[in-house]
Amino acid sequence: GPMGLLTWKGGTLEAPLPPVLVSCGTLDSPNVLTVAWTGIVNTDPPMTYISVRPERFSFEILRKTGEFVINLPTESLARAIDFCGVRSGRDIDKIDACGLTLLPGETVQAPLVAESPVHLECQITQELPLGSHHMFLARISAVRVDEKYMDETGRLCMEKCRLISYIHGTYYATGRALGKFGFSVQKKKKRPRS
User: Fold this and answer.
1) With bands split at pLDDT 50, 70 and 90, how would you rate the model's confidence at 1?
2) pLDDT by residue (tens digit) across 114-137?
3) Angle at alpha carbon of residue 106, lines to 156 and 22, rounded to 5°
4) 112 with 69: CB under 8 angstroms?
5) pTM of the model
6) What is the CA radius of gyration of the chain?
7) Exposed (0-12), middle (13-18) or buried (19+): which is 135, by Cβ within 10 Å?
8) Using CB atoms within 10 A of its CB, is residue 169 exposed (0-12), middle (13-18) or buried (19+)?
9) How do residues 180-193 score in pLDDT, each as one tens digit?
């Protein structure tokens, strides 16, 4: 191709993605699954989505309950995240197998995975059948945060959470900071003359 660019047919080659642990069901009858097809779609109201294959065990749970929790992925959860992505809740208790701890939700019946630092409690507003996956659009009704990641000013220190990403079949630790939002247009501070 021109300038050495290859053209492939359309595919899902967007990266990095957050391989989040999605918890659904109830504290009494819970399930967790790993979802990388997720993101933020709106600020006001705060909205997200997860895309799930209809064959997945959690699919009918999501449809029936209309809610779920997105638990952000960390380095220490990498093994559980992978396991919950390849095993089915139909055949195995993934929560028990991974040694995960569940906590009650505040605004949803779906439980939280305690080992995650940040939890988005979500209420499904719409289901979109797209083909291989159905997208569940959802309002984020509450954000729950582990207070050990808060500093004395009340700021959430996300950089201390050791979040991971998923790039084309591989999990990666988050790298070094490259600049804060807006750094490209920030005016340089004048240094006082000595």
Assistant:
1) low
2) 999 999 999 999 999 999 999 999
3) 75
4) yes
5) 0.93
6) 19
7) middle
8) exposed
9) 999 999 888 777 77
